[in-house]
Amino acid sequence: MFYEELKKRRESAGITLDQISNKIKVNKTILEAFEKGDFTKLPETYVRLFLKAYTNELGANPAKILSEYEAFIGEVPEKKVPDTHPEEPSFLSLKNEPVVHENKKRNVAAITIVLVIFIFLISVLKQVLMEEEKNKPAPINTIIKELPEPIEEVDTTEVEPALIDEEEVLPEPVPEILSLVMITSDTCWVRVVTDENDTTEANYLPNIRREWKAEKLFDVRVGRPTKVRLTLNNKPLGPIGKTGIPTRLIISKDGIIRSTLLRR
User: Phi and psi dihedrals of 148, rounded to 5?
Assistant: First the structure.
């Protein structure tokens, strides 16, 4: 019979009833009954639906199997129910009983179909959500670090202490260090020579503060003197030139000792 052929096909493929039951969402006991030729556990509509799904899973021809199923159920004799009421039924009972019974069968079948479809949709939706959760990219942690404030360069060269006698030695007088501070209000070219030795030259952006130190003199050249404010040892030096005319300044401890306009 066709159900025996289906069972042999499954066993030869090495597929268990549990695997098919999980895949097509049909109870294992129903599938076991199918393989024994018992199709009385469900309404005929569900038998056809589940038998077709089972056949597809095994790679067989559903149309051929359903055709053989039709021939099979046509050969099975109907079970006779003994008559427990020997008395003849009335005309009304003979007329109404089949209609009521048929309506109940239809209602039960419809409710069963709806429940099976609902359970199937829930299982499909659950599987889709699980797949989306697996494929969901891992969250990316964004780390924002604040930029450190600029740190002025500091000479950290260690100086070995000089050996001194036990007797107190008077320190030599330290010459006064001059501190020249510049603050720009606009982009400006500035060249500074300290003690006629060290030279720095650059184009400075607005709101830049720069400090130079010397022992005797500063030789300063400014491209836009009105865009620069100079202080010597925390004392403002005041206006240092005219608009648009580069200026050269010689600065000592006494302040600006010479100012020269550099004509272009």
Answer: -70, 150
**pLDDT tens across 104-141, in order?**
777 888 899 999 998 998 988 888 888 777 776 555 45
CA–CA distances in Å: residue 2 to residues 33, 45, 150, 198, 262: 13, 19, 87, 105, 112
Structure tokens at 221: 């050249």
Q: H/E/C letters for each residue in 62-83?
A: HHHHHHHHHHHHHHCCCCCCCC
Question: What is the C-alpha to C-alpha distance for residues 225 and 177, in angstroms, rounded to an integer?
Answer: 25
Locate 226 and state its tokens: 């009105």
For residue 22, give both structure tokens.
């999980």
| Level-2 CATH architecture, domain 2-77+97-132 | Orthogonal Bundle (1.10)
**C-alpha 248 chain-centroid distance:** 60
Question: How far is CA 65 from each of CA 52, 59, 180, rounded to the nearest angstrom?
Answer: 8, 11, 103
Among 24, 223, 36, which Cα is nearest to 116's? Answer: 24
Q: What share of the chain is helix, strand, coil (3-state, %, to 5)?
A: 40, 20, 40
Q: Exposed, middle or buried, 104 (CB in 10 Å: 0-12/13-18/19+)?
A: exposed
DSSP assignments along 96-151, one per residue? HHHHHHHHHHHHHHHHHHHHHHHHHHHHHHHHHHHHHHHHSPPP------PPPPP-
Least confident piece of the model among 42-51, 167-176, 181-190, 208-217:
167-176
Backbone angles phi, psi at 108, to 5 degrees: -65, -40
Enter the tokens of residue 108: 């039960």
Picking from 201, 203, 188, the residue whose alpha carbon sits closest to that of residue 244 is: 188
Structure tokens that stand for 19 in this block: 């695997």
Reduced to 3 states, what is the DSSP secondary structure of residue 19? helix
